Amino acid sequence: MMDCKKVESKEEETSRDVVVERDDYLKNRNELVELTKTPLMRAFVEAQDPSSKVVDDLMLRRFLRARDLDVEQASAMFLKYLKWRQAFAPNGSISASEVPNQIAQNKLFLQGSDKRGCPIAVLLGARHFQVKGGLKEFKRYVVYAFDKICARMPPGQEKFIFIGDLEGWGYSNSDIRAYLGAVSILQDYYPERLGKMFVVHVPFVFMTVWKIICPFIDNKTKEKIVFVENKMLKSTLLEEIDESQLPEKYGGKLTLVPI
Asked: Which domains are delineated in the chain?
């Protein structure tokens, strides 16, 4: 008689192969649709805002993916982004001198990359407090940080990995308006930039705040957020990140470097 375990193993292997083939097919099909629709979107947005002529196709494609390849919706989202960017950062970028109180908290770090080449950012949530400068400076800091992270991306890479470390986090660190502001900026103005977010060392008290924030996070972003159990921390991160690129704090070999 044939070993039942061997039969199950072959069935599971066949099933996995089918899933991989299906995913590859869908990915290739979507890429072809993107390539077809990108010129249509470009023609529309350039007619509405000539400044969009300097934007590359990769950016337009990210907005298309964010709106499920709907040209009209993606164009509206992109034009809103352009208007926001011109008003929010009229000089083209946010300088460190515009976010001194946020930088002084020394809470965000950037070094290393995952196995696909995505840069890795680490946020120590227990170092965030409401400070002088308020929500306006915090939002400038979010843009300052995202721009720094995106500038680290190698050619051909569009996403970054985020590790949100909540070790030591308490109600004194709770800043719901800031969290919602960061979520809004990420989803509305940096679509398809987040590859995955690992939330680690999660205290029970944080879940009260999470229940408030969660409804404001779109489904695509939620799918990229992974809450990691402490006992599975190193093994989970090593699935995506080589030990040589992982911060020492999580069992790797890199020291944390402030952004």
From this structure: 4-88 (1.10.8), 96-250 (3.40.525.10)
